[in-house]
Amino acid sequence: MTTGDRRRNGIREVAATAGVSIGTVSNVLNHPGVVAAGTRARVEQVMQELGFVRNGMARQLREGRAATAGTLVLDIANPFFTETARGIEDRLAEAGCMLTLCSTDQQPDREARYLHMLEEQGVRGILVTPTRLDIESLLAMQRRGVPIVLLDCPSPTAEICSVAIDDIRGGELAAAHLIARGHRRVMFLNGPPHVQQCTARSRGAHNAFQKAGLDPAQHLFEVALPRASTDRAEAVLEQTLALPDQPTAIMCVSDIVALGVMRSLRKRGLKVPDDIAVVGYDDVPFAAELATSLTTIRQPTYDLGRAAATLLLTDADPTASDGHQQLTYQPELIVRESA
Amino acid sequence: MTTGDRRRNGIREVAATAGVSIGTVSNVLNHPGVVAAGTRARVEQVMQELGFVRNGMARQLREGRAATAGTLVLDIANPFFTETARGIEDRLAEAGCMLTLCSTDQQPDREARYLHMLEEQGVRGILVTPTRLDIESLLAMQRRGVPIVLLDCPSPTAEICSVAIDDIRGGELAAAHLIARGHRRVMFLNGPPHVQQCTARSRGAHNAFQKAGLDPAQHLFEVALPRASTDRAEAVLEQTLALPDQPTAIMCVSDIVALGVMRSLRKRGLKVPDDIAVVGYDDVPFAAELATSLTTIRQPTYDLGRAAATLLLTDADPTASDGHQQLTYQPELIVRESA
DNA sequence: ATGAAAGCGCTAACAT
DNA sequence: ATGTTAGCGCTTTCAT
Asked: Which positions in chain B touch A70 (Cβ < 8 Å)?
């Protein structure tokens, strides 16, 4: 056995050793001002000696809520969520809370399971990027007293908070940049249309052409990848480039896709941006590091997380106003070499 | 007010509504076999109707430990830890536990603060990548009943578990590959020597030459970057390549560094791997996606996490043996185009 | 300024 | 098979 005695000492032991009542020990902990200086010193001394550590579970049981907030993301391993998580964590820390992080892997059953576990834990609230937006069960949880904030997902109802990034605007920024550079034949290598972000970005691209007085139908054509991966992008481009009427610029739904595009272009001996311009989306860490650095759309991921946590915290605060805010953040164009 | 009634209903309300005692309700929850089928059905029915959610805090208070494990990493936003965290999370989920994730940012005070908060929460255990290995306070925590597992860090004492990756072997693999390819003048672009991983990898590289019957002093020379970043690597290489006696291969302490190397080589018009071979370390996601895909050393990050969590769980299990295992994982050479 | 006592919601031992 | 009861460790009235 490595550990000596089984049970940790609590305020009871401290009280006994210091020769005071547990109430006084509790006061030293929570209302030090009310305790006589001498007594306080003695009690603190004993706490030291006994290696006293407050039992948070007991405390929170009484308090009615845990010092923890839950976050459900699609996958921790995705850089987008990782930065966001960091923002959440930092904001929570300021409120003395910690972050319980859960990956749903887009599986509704995993999502439901985690949601339930978190509710049982009495978390301060839950930040969730929903897999398939089951707003009813989220609403039910919220009514049971668990504040909910939708993460990277605009809320479909005024009753639930949300933070999101304006994907329409992101698509517009990317397209507008290309238009400004004189491109009149742009290909948008998009992801599957059932993903909300993809359709929004496409809409944005259309808007950009319209605002420039150009007919999208003439100048913009879209190819939807079944899955937004490097390999798929490379393969699809292989075929597309064999056709006549090549685009002068390619707009990609993600940097990962842009990577496949750049590879494919290089194979064909086409130079970026001289022969074909490329714009990515996400500004992942390696975007700036590629042989030809990538022009792309940056999303305020860290701030998204901070804002979400702030919303959660105020929502969880009974003294605060009860409006359910819905925040939208703006993406930003990062111009580098590729376009 | 959005939420209707303040207090969630607990087993008391369920018992009253179902016309049974709270003991029976508890039995339905924890020992369903012992309850008469009819009663059980009725109770479950009532739970449904009342939207009963077990109070985990109360349960765990009684049980003595939370359904959560803590993990302290240097930075969630680092892909290495992100993958590891995923492994931890998945393993914990199998045991019905959740993961509280904390970034220390290498700051000892943040580390200490989180450690303390986690202990208060009564977590099942803590996985920690220490900032400056304060083994004493970790040991003290463990003696107080909180299982500790060192993450990506070999344990200096037999009393504490650890999981780590063999960096000596990693360095050896990289160097041996270059040697096998005929390289006899290898440059090792390393990180700062005060980082344990860097010195270990350097040692490994030396070993490789010795095993090949070659004198490291003759064939291997090392340049230490003050910080292992792309820009630094690029700058340093700029100077180094101006000197005579250029290496035929460059071994890098990380893929990030390798990126800077590749960039610099491209600027000078040198072809990889024909003019100079390059080996990275880490196998970050973009390694395979570069213009010239990167030969590198892969680390079993996900498995590292799983193993660490398993160690924690068995360590936390009072019925298990009390040996403190120290696991070392093996890195793997991934051969691609760059070498 | 300090002490005594109630109870947060649950589980498990014991009684029926 | 079901009910009763004693805590888990803490905070907080309410007395003193």
From this structure: 98
Structure tokens at B40: 């059980």
Interface test mutation site (partner A, options B57, B102, B336, max chain A beta carbons within 10 A): B57
Nearest-angstrom CA–CA distance, B155 and A76:
27
For the residues of A285-336, what is the DSSP string, one character each?
A: GGGGGSSSPPBEEE--HHHHHHHHHHHHHHHH-TTS-----EEEEPPEEE--
Contacting residues of B for A83, CB less than 8 Å apart: 77
Specify the range with the lowest mean pLDDT, choosing from A10-14, B69-73, B91-95, B227-231: B227-231
- Interchain pair A121, B100: CB under 8 A: no
Rounded to whole angstroms, the distance from the CA of residue A319 to the C1' of nucleotide D13 is 22
Closest B-chain CA to A89? B102
Whole-number Å distance, CA A312 to C1' C7? 29
Q: What is the pLDDT of residues A274-308, one digit of tens each?
A: 999 999 999 988 888 787 899 999 999 999 999 99
Interchain contact A109–B (C-beta under 8 A):
no
* Nucleotide of closest approach to B30 (CA, C1'): C11
Cβ-defined contact of A2 to B142 (cutoff 8 Å): yes
| Mean pLDDT, range B200-204, rounded to an integer | 97
CA-based Rg of chain B, rounded to a whole angstrom?
A: 27
Interchain CB contact of B267 with A (< 8 Å)? no
Nearest to B293 by CA among B272, B265, B311: B272
Answer yes or no: is pLDDT of B189 > 80: yes
Beta strands A332-334 and A296-298: pairing type?
antiparallel
Distance CA A167, CA A329 (A): 9
In B74-207, beta strands by DSSP E = 98-103, 126-128, 148-151, 161-165, 186-190
- Convert the pLDDT of each residue in A92-117 to its tens digit: 999 999 999 999 998 999 999 999 99
Percent with pLDDT over 90 in chain B = 79
Q: Within 7 A of a protein CB, which nucleotides of strand C?
A: 1-5, 7-13
User: Residues 6 or more apart from A39 whose CB is under 8 A from it?
Assistant: A18, A20, A24, A28
Q: For residues B279 and A201, give the distance between their C-alpha atoms in angstroms, rounded to a whole number.
A: 38
Q: Return mean pLDDT, chain B.
A: 92
Nearest nucleotide by C1' position to the B22 CA atom: D3
Could you give the CA distance from residue A335 to residue A333 in angstroms, rounded to a whole number?
Answer: 6
Encode pLDDT of B129-154 as tens digits: 998 888 999 999 999 999 999 999 99
For residue B131, the tally of other CB atoms under 10 A from its CB is 17
Backbone angles phi, psi at A316, to 5 degrees: -80, -15
Q: How many residues does chain A have?
A: 339
Task: State how far residue B148 is from chain A, nearest Cα, in angstroms.
Answer: 12
Is A67 in CB contact (< 8 Å) with chain B? yes
Contact A298/B at CB under 8 A: no
| Burial class, B7, CB count within 10 angstroms (exposed 0-12 / middle 13-18 / buried 19+) | exposed
Stated in angstroms, how far is A7 CA from C15 C1'? 29
Host H or E run for residue B250: strand B249-252
The predicted model gives A188-204 an average pLDDT of 92
pLDDT at A3: 38
Q: How would residue B2 be classed by pLDDT, with cut points 50, 70 and 90?
A: very low
